[in-house]
Design brief:
Muramoyl-pentapeptide Carboxypeptidase, domain 2, four-stranded antiparallel beta sheet, alpha+beta, about 40% helix, 2 domains
């Protein structure tokens, strides 16, 4: 009985091997191209209109007239009403801060955090914001719709706070009366002040903007 030889794998012809390599290269290139198109399409997709906030209207100049910093009321991003490291929070009127923290504690049950976009401000900080707003908006009259003078600003006296993000401001606008906290101006959804009577009778009607507020008159 003769032993049959063990079969061996067929060798690919050079032309077939070349064709196989080219086909693989085209497949890989196609996958890479599809992935790149998919990523660029997602990154360029519109994300929807951003809700307005105090950061959109308050000037944020990179070169300030004077060295304004934390001691004047500037706050880093993410500071909450419970943070006691910053004068913007600690120099607020104690009754206002107490009410804010009570409201923030209740809002936290719904996953809402009260971020301090701006609180107490020094006279120098307020004046600088006013100067920058006048430059940004083109006139003192238009700037007055967004930034008060140091002598009339409720921020300088510690009686006002700008709350973010928009979800937190919306919650406070709807529920703040229970804590004596009210939105004061229609054009500033983030600006809140203490109105103790709101606990029993609700928040007063809002002014269209600060220029309609009698307190802002010279």
């Amino acid at each position: 009985m003769t032993r049959e030889s063990t079969p061996t794998a067929r060798r690919l012809s050079p032309s077939l091997l070349l064709f196989t390599i080219i086909a693989l290269v085209l497949v890989v290139a196609g996958l890479i191209g599809f992935h790149s198109w998919d990523v660029s399409t997602v990154s360029s997709a519109p994300t929807g209109a951003k809700a307005p906030s105090v950061m959109d209207v308050l000037p944020r100049s990179s070169s300030r007239e004077h060295a304004i910093g934390v001691a004047d009321g500037e706050v880093p991003e993410g500071v909450t009403v419970f943070d006691s490291r910053y004068p913007a929070v600690t120099k607020l009127d104690p009754a206002l801060l107490t009410a804010l923290r009570r409201a923030a504690t209740d809002a936290a049950q719904f996953g809402i955090t009260f971020v301090v976009d701006s609180g107490w401000r020094s006279v120098a900080y307020q004046q600088q914001l006013l100067n920058e707003a006048t430059s940004k908006y083109g006139s003192a009259k238009e700037a007055a719709r967004w930034v008060a003078t140091p002598s009339t600003s409720a921020h300088v006296t510690g009686d006002a706070i700008d709350i973010g993000p928009s979800r937190a401001a919306t919650w406070l606008a709807r529920n703040g009366g229970r804590y004596g906290l009210c939105q004061i101006y229609k054009n500033e959804a983030w600006h809140f002040e203490r109105r103790p009577q709101a606990i029993s009778v609700g928040c007063p009607s809002m002014y269209a903007d600060p220029t309609f507020d009698p307190r802002m008159q010279p």
